[in-house]
Amino acid sequence: MYFGILRNSQNHSAISYMIALKNDFSVRPLLAYRGVKGYDNQYDIAAEWGLEDLKFYTMYHSNKSFSGGLGYTYKNQLNIATMYNSEPVAVRGFSGGVFDIVVGYRFNKKF
């Protein structure tokens, strides 16, 4: 099991807890707070669902938008993921949201 807290005195705090279940299935719920100068603070409720090397991400933001994605890790080094972020309600209809493709490589397997 994993328990983590991330704090940045400027504008971000998060807490999560890894729950390992049967057959390499896990879930990590997450609560986060983000403060943006000049804007309303934002709260997030999220979960990362894992089955071996495959991850599914879901997140609801207090600005009435959501994020979701899918990721795959190959041999604990190469990571390929996609994410979709819907528009905040204040600007809905302008862009249709954001779609990201992420490719990462871990050079040192020890971490």
Question: Any key phrases for this structure?
Answer:
eight-stranded antiparallel sheet; PorP/SprF_Bacteroidetes; 111 residues
Number of strand elements: 8
Contiguous uncertain segments of 5+ residues:
1-9
Average the pLDDT over all residues and give the rounded result: 82
User: Which structural class is indicated by helix and strand composition?
Assistant: mainly beta
- Widest beta sheet: strand line-up: 1-2-3-4-5-6-7-8
Largest sheet: 8 strands, antiparallel
* Molecular shape: globular
Beta-strand level of the residues, as a percent range? over 45%
Structural account:
This is Type IX secretion system membrane protein PorP/SprF. InterPro entries: PorP/SprF_Bacteroidetes. It holds the Pfam family PorP_SprF. It comes from Pedobacter aquae. With 111 residues, the chain is an all-beta fold. The chain has one domain (10-105). It is built from no helices and 8 strands. The chain has an 8-stranded antiparallel β-sheet with strand order 1-2-3-4-5-6-7-8, with no helix packed on it. Strand 4 (42-51) and strand 5 (54-61) form a beta hairpin. The chain is globular and about 40 Å long. Residues 1-9 have low confidence and may be disordered.
